[in-house]
Amino acid sequence: MTDLATKIAARLGPKGVVTENADLAPFLSEWRGRFSGKTPLAALPATTEEVADVVRLCIEAGAKITTQGGNTGLVGGQIPDGEVLISLRRMNRIREIDAANDSLTADAGVVLKVVQEAARESNRLFPLSLASEDSATIGGLISTNAGGVHVLRYGMMRDLVLGIEAVLPDGRIFSGLKGLRKDNTGYDLKQLFIGAEGTLGIVTAATLKLFPRPAAREVVLLATPSAERALALLHRMKAATGAVSAFEVMNRLSVEVTVKNVPSVRDPLQGAGAIAVLIEFEAAHAEGMRDAIETALAAAIEAGEAETALIAENAGQMRDFWALRELISAGHKPEGTQVNHDVSVPVSQTPAFLARANAAMEARVPGARIVAFGHMGDGNFHYTVMQPLGSDAAAFPGAALTQTVYEIATALGGSISAEHGIGVARRSDLARFKDPESMTLMRTLKRAIDPNNVMNPRAMFE
Ligand SMILES: Cc1cc2nc3c(=O)[nH]c(=O)nc-3n(C[C@H](O)[C@H](O)[C@H](O)COP(=O)(O)OP(=O)(O)OC[C@H]3O[C@@H](n4cnc5c(N)ncnc54)[C@H](O)[C@@H]3O)c2cc1C
Questions:
Q1: CA 456 → CA 77, 115, 136, 421, distances in Å?
Q2: In angstroms, what is the span from residue 286 Cα to ligand 1's centroid?
C-alpha cells in the first residue's frame, strides 16, 4: 500500500493523498458515530482523468475502493473497511450553467448548497432540499437517489438528473453528460448510477435540471386529529391550490421531544392535535394564492381535517415552522435506546401503516414510544421506536421490532428504504425483503459492470 500511495501521490501531487491517521480520521466515521472504519489511504483526485488513473492504479495493486462525498450518508456505505478511500471533495467546480436549457453541470464533489446558490444567481431553482445540504455532494445525492422535502412537486434526485459522467470499475470513463430532456436511443444508462451507492462506478459530474423560481411561497402549520384526516387534507390542499410543494407530518410525541431537547424550538400549535402538519405552497404568482389557501383551510376545519391552523406571516415564521420539522431527528436522539426506520408505502396506505405499526409496537413492547414524522405526501415515514420511559435498555428488542416494521410496510406494498438507501446497515434486510427476481437482476448487473467487485464491495449486497 505504501507503493500505491507513492504512485497516487506522483499522479495527484501531495494534496491528493492522505495517509496519516490523524488526517484520515474525519473520513473514517460519520456524524452520529454509528459507523467507523479503516483505510490505508485516502485519494483526493481533482479531475475526472485523475479519478480514472487512481482507479487503474488501485486495480493494478489489487486494492478495492470505497467512494465518499460529503460523508452525510445515513447507512454507512461511504465508510471504508480496509478499502482505498476515494474522496470527491476536491472535484468542486460548477462546470457550466445553461440557463436557456434550464440546466447546470457540476463536478460530483460540489456541495448541494453551492448548486442551489448558483441556480439562484441565474434566476433559476434547483429544488432538491434536505437538512444535510450544507455538506452533501452532488455525487453522494445521486448515488443515494436523495429525496428531501420537495419530492411531492419535483421528484427525487433521479428525476432531476439529465446526464452523468462516471468512472467505471475498470477505469474507463462513461461520458453521459447530456442536457437532453428527450433521448430514446436505447437503455437510459445514467439511471444505472443513480441510487447505486457507488457499487457500479464513481460519479464524477452531472447535468442537473433547473426550474423557474417560484415568486410566491406560503407555509402553513396545523393540527389534525388523525392520519386519515391528514390524508384527506393532503388531497384537499392539492386540488384546491395546485401549489403544494411539501406536505410533512409530525406525530405529537415527535414535537414534544423536540421542544424538550432542542432549546431553540417551540411548538406554535401549543400541544394541539395528534399530528402536526407542515404544508408549503409555491406558485409563479402570489395573486390569489393566499385566498385559495385560506378558503381551503376553512373547508378543512369544517370537515374536521384541521384543528388549529397557522399561516406564517413572514420569513422568520416560515423558518420557525420548518425548524420544528427539521430538528426532529436531533430532538429524539437523546431519548434513550431506539430503532429508526425510513419506510415508504403507497400514499393511500399511510394511515394503515401507522395504525398497524403502532399497534404491533405496543403489543410487543407495552409503553414503547413512537416518533413518526416525515414526508407523508410521498408515502414516506421516518418511524422511530423508543424504549418505554424508565425501562431496561438491554431488554429492548430493537432488531425484532425492525423486522415487524418492515413486514408491515412490505405487506402494504411498501419499501424498507424510502430515501436513505441500503449501505452496509440494511444489506441483510434487502436480501430478505426485496423480491428474489429483483435481487438476481441486481446481482447480474453488478457482476456485468464490476466483475471483480472493486467498487464499494461491502455496500448493498451481503
Ligand atoms: C441531517 C441529515 C438529513 C438528511 N435528510 C435526508 C432527506 O431528507 N432525504 C434524503 O434522501 N436523505 C437525507 N439524508 C441522507 C442523504 O442521503 C445524504 O445526506 C446524501 O445524499 C449523501 O451525500 P454525501 O455527499 O454526503 O455522500 P456520502 O455520505 O459521502 O456517500 C453516500 C453514498 O454514496 C456513495 N457516493 C458518494 N459520492 C459518490 C460518487 N461521487 N460516486 C459514486 N458513489 C458515491 C458512497 O459510497 C455512499 O455509498 C440526510 C442526512 C443527514 C445527515
A1: 7, 26, 18, 14
A2: 34
